[in-house]
Structures are given as structure tokens and as C-alpha cells.
Amino acid sequence: MTMGELRTVLIVQALLIINCYVGLISGQQLHQGRWELLLQNAGVSAMHMTLTHTNKLLIFDQTLAGPSQIMRTDPPCNINASQDCWAHSIEYDIATNSVRPLHLLTDTFCSSAAFASNGTLIQTGGWSDGARVIRYFAPCSDATCNWIESPVHLTANRWYASNQILPDGRVIVIGGRRSFNYEFVPKVLSEGAFQLPFLVKTNSVGEENNLYPFLHLSSDGNLFIFANKDSILFDYNKNQVLKTFPTMPGGGARNYPSSGSSVMLPLESANNFQKVELLICGGARDGAFKKATTNQTFVEALRSCGRMEITSQNPQWEMEEMPGPRVMGDMLILPTAQILIINGAKNGTAGWQSAREPALSPFLYTPTEALGNRFRVLAPTKIPRMYHSTANVLPDGRVLVAGSNSNYGYRFSGVPFPTELRVEVYIPYYLHPHYDSKRVNITAISTKEIKYGSKFIVRFTLSRRPSENIKFNAYAPPFTTHSWSMNQRMLSLVATPIVKGKGGYLVGLTAPSSAVAAPSGYYLLTIVNGGVPSEAKWIRFIN
Predict the structure, then answer these.
(1) What does the pLDDT read at residue 26?
(2) For residue range 493-534, what is the model confidence (pLDDT) as tens digits?
(3) Nearest-angstrom CA–CA distance, 441 and 278
(4) Structural Rg of the chain based on CA atoms
(5) Which of 11, 48, 180, 281 is the most exposed place for a label (fewest CB within 10 A)?
(6) How does DSSP classify residue 302?
(7) Strand partners, 405
(8) How far is C-alpha 84 from the geometric centre of its chain's CA atoms?
């Protein structure tokens, strides 16, 4: 063999190896997804985050932790006059991949929020001067909107509380440190706070484990409340416990600082949105918080998940195991109606420097699969997302991930997990080009303001015939903080037969019949064709 022939053979072999490697990577992405860095420095660590109907994310931290990494621009601030000229909140624009600094007036440390029907974020509580403050953020498209504080204050301090939008448009605010009660925003006349003994009963001495209680609006209009290991069905109008559910097994607590996460599985029009199932995953073993904070012993987190149909005649927990332990994981409903479990740690609890071993690989949970076959391990990130991390699903189906700060203040060296200002996206398997032929493009919606029980027309295009397995999902994006996605909700809507029309397809959809099934507000509408979601479009259910 001549030198030229040998060179040719070596080149061919090298190309084959490269092609095999590229094929392997593509195959992994087909099943496991991939990650992409969006911003190297967002300026503010994302302790709290939510998606607004203007396709921008509202991100904020606390105000009393010293300088961030981005300055306020409204109006010119005089740092020499001892003013805090650092921004502690930003608005992230998905389309331009850029941020705009915002001005928070009082401390939002470990606070809560819910959207009003008109898309305004009602944000409550925090720490220090912010503990009883009610704030509003009305999203805009012209970069003029900013935080506004209400002259009306909360009745009780709300630090580590939870919010839920109600069918009548009010927001209920429940719990918080040493606040074993609840109240409403807005209030009726001179209404104050109402005692909730359940929060006293679920308070573990020295650990609490009932902060940021999980709240889910059930199909009868009452509220499911989960704290620590226990749960109730609660009539908030009459201040009455209607049902006490079985204690969740698993050997540990699920709420802050043990910080598991909870999600209501997607509601189905086939049963008129009456069947309600909840999934709670992860958390920490009993005593783990004390061990982490007193002697830096980091106990392995819980692997277990509990699933319960709360509307059944005899509700019971069905337990299953995740592929690995996880505390401080965020649970999000993907457009496919699958559940993504992302962020967190394998050992320890929430709290300052109270966890170790980042959980870098997300888990995918498919509720419709058989028990024991519901989990899949996804592609790992390279960025630890520990305490004070957040995640939100974007309209195009990607998942934006930000935050992680186990330190009081912004510290970038000399600590196990430095303050994290990078913003990245997890790109799920269904966005792989392999699935593009099944991907629908929504071209028009007959009305974006949709009354309960009314019908509306959706037009869409597709390069092939629609699948027999096609679904139309409406998704209420959550407010996420401390591993808890408040007010997250998905509904599968009633649809007419699909008709082929000029330039594409038409389908008639029916809105839920009442605000009990879908509280009034903005939702993302997605068409899922053969398991592949379209990019979502905003609609609004209104009274």
C-alpha cells in the first residue's frame, strides 16, 4: 500500500468515527434532550421566577443581601446618598435574550405570588420591611412597567407562605413562618386573618417542615393543603376541614426546609375535569435539617414519590421510586403532559449551605405509563442548581433554568456552591428535528378572550395528516420559588373533529365550564400531535 492509499484509508476511518460519534450524540439528544447556555450573567440570582403573557420572565431575589451584579436605571440613583442602586429584580425577554433591571422597594426574601385574571402578578410578603407588603407587577410590551406597592398591607407576616388563585378571582395566602393562618387578597371590608390549626399540627419542633405548604384547587372548589407529611381538603370560605387524607409514607417530610415538590397532574375533559390526582416527589428524611445545620452531616434525600387521587371515594397514596434521591427539585408540567423534575441536590436539605451533591440529571415522569415504568433519566447539566434555584416552561417548550444561591449575599468564591447568575435552557427530546414533521404550527385563534363554556376556532398547519392521537392542552404557568410551582395547572380541552380547510386545518375547542376547573387568567394553548407539541399561543379564560 502506497503512502497515498494509506492516507486515504486513515481519512475514511476518521470520517466513519466522526459520523458514529455525531450519530451517538444525536441519538442521545433524541431521548435525553440537551442543554444550552443563554446568559453568562443575568445580574440577579433567580430566587423567584414566573412567565408573563408578554413572553417575558419576571425574576427577582431579595433586597437585603447587598449588591447584585446589575444596576438600577430608574430614575438615576445616587449611590453616594446611601441609596441601594443595585437591581434585585429583572425582566428577561425571551425574544431578545436580554434583561431589563427593575426596582423593588421592599424585601421579597422567600415570598409568594399568583396571577390575577388580567395577568397582573399579585406578589405577597417577604422578610423584614417586606413581610406584610402586597406588590403588583402588570406586564407590558414597551419596557415601562415596574413594581408597584399597595398602600394596603397583609394582616400577618408572610415569610415562606403559599398563594393560590381562587375561582372568584381572589388570592388566598396561607402560612409562613410562625403564621398559622390564612388571608385573602383583596380583602372584604375589614377582614383579617383566619386561624388554621392544621399548620400548628404539622409544625415539627426545630425543623418546621410545613413552610411553603402545597396548595391545589380541587374540582369541587375546595382547597387541598399538604404540609410536612399530612394533607387536608379545606373549605376556605367556612374555615372548615372537610377531609383528612392518609399520612404520606416515605420516612420524611416534603415541605420547606425538607423541600420536595408537588404537582397536580393534567386534568381531562373526558371526566369534565373532575378527577384530580396529585404527585409529590422528593424531600428529606426526618432530622435531616438539624443534622445539616448543626454538624454539617448531609443525609441522603428521599427517593420516593407519592401519587393520590384526592377525588376518589377512598384516597390512598401510591408510592413509587425516582431513579435517584432529590431534595429541592422543581416539578413542571411539560406541554406533552409529562412531568419534569429538575434542579436540586442528592443530600441534605434547603437552607444556607445545607445540601451537597448536586442532582444534575433531570427526571422525566410519564403519568400514563404503568407503575415502575414511569421515569426516564435525562441529559445532565454542568451547572449545580441548589438552594434558591428556579425553572419555568417557555412557550416554545424549552425549560428556562436559573438561580442557585446557598449564601447570604452574592459570593463567587470560597464557598462550596458560589452564587449562580448564569441562565440556561433545557431543550427536551420533543424539540429534536426528528419530530419536526409532526409539529403543528398554530396560525390563528378566533378569539383570545374566551368565556367559560364557549367554543373557539383554532387554525393550524402541518406537513402531514394529523395523528389520531392529538390533544389540545391549556397550561397556566406557575410562579416558582423554593421548589414549589404555585398555581400550575394543565387542562386537556374538548375538541370537535378536525377539518381540512384552505391553507391548513381547523378545529373547534370548548373552554372549561367554570373557574373552578380553570381559574380566570392567561393560559398557554398547545396542540400535541402524536406526542409532539406545537409552540404555544396565549389565550385567556374570562368570566
Answers:
(1) 56
(2) 999 999 998 889 999 999 999 999 999 999 999 999 999 999
(3) 31
(4) 24
(5) 11
(6) P
(7) none
(8) 30
pLDDT tens string 178-203 = 999 999 999 998 899 999 999 999 99
CA 543 → CA 432, 446, 451, 513, distances in Å? 39, 18, 6, 10
Give dist(CA 57, CA 94) in Å, integer: 8
> Distance (Å, rounded) from C-alpha 174 to C-alpha 198?
11
Strand partners, 52: none
Averaged pLDDT for residues 277-288: 98
Amino acid identity for residue 373 in this structure: N
- Is residue 341 within 8 A of residue 363, CB to CB? The reply is yes
How many C-beta atoms surround the C-beta of residue 377 within 10 A?
A: 14
Instruction: For 344-387, give the secondary structure using H, E and C.
Output: CEEEECCCCCCEEEECCCCEEECCCCCCCCCEEECCCCCCCCCC
- Preceding peptide of 418 cis, ω within 30°: no
Residue pair 259/252 in contact by the 8 Å Cβ criterion: no
d(CA 90, CA 423) in angstroms, rounded, equals 13
Omega of the bond leading into 257 within 30 degrees of 0 (cis)? yes
**What is the residue whose three cell numbers read 406584610?**
132
Whole-angstrom distance between the N-terminal and C-terminal Cα of the chain? Answer: 82
- Classify each residue of 220-245 as buried b or exposed e, where b means 16 or more C-beta atoms within 10 Å of its C-beta: ebbbbbbbbbbbbbbebeeeeeeeeb
